[in-house]
Amino acid sequence: MIRHTVVFSLKHPQGSAEEKKFLDDAMVLTKIAGVKAFERLRQVSPKTEYSFGFSMEFDDQAAYDEYNAHPLHVAFVRDRWLPEVSAFMEIDYVSI
Q1: pLDDT for the residue numbered 67
Q2: Could you count the other beta carbons within 10 Å of the beta carbon of residue 34?
Q3: What CA–CA distance (Å, rounded) separates 13 from 31?
Q4: What percent of the chain has pLDDT above 90?
């Protein structure tokens, strides 16, 4: 199992309609086969500059690779992520 996580901040003002639309539109990623346990998260710790997180799980590397190449993911990154995210950090985990 791979847990794919990303923490990020948006260019939009906190609480804005644009912020809400971005977070709502991210639900398109749940339509991709292999995406499990998708979560949209609000970051609350004062120890980091990031505001939000996405977390999802994949059964294996093949499912994760399919997600990365899927047209819905590619379009979301191109059309929404790159123009609207101001900073991010991606971390992928496997159990030890």
Answers
A1: 98
A2: 16
A3: 28
A4: 100
- The stretch 69-77 carries a mean pLDDT of 98
Query: pTM, whole model, 2 decimals?
Result: 0.92
Q: Name the pLDDT band for 37 (thresholds 50, 70, 90).
A: very high
| Beta-bridge partner residues of 9 | 87
The CATH number given to 2-94 is: 3.30.70.100
The identity of residue 37, as a single letter, is A
Kindly list the domain boundaries of the chain, sorted by start residue: 2-94
Task: Tell me how far apart the alpha carbons of residues 25 and 35 are, in angstroms, rounded to a whole number.
Answer: 16
Q: How many CB atoms lie within 10 A of CB 67?
A: 19
Give the model's pLDDT for residue 29: 98
Strand, coil or helix: 70: coil
Q: Per residue, what are the HEC states of 4-51?
A: EEEEEEECCCCCCHHHHHHHHHHHHHHHCCCCEEEEEEECCCCCCCCC
- Phi, psi torsion values for 92, nearest 5 degrees: -115, 135
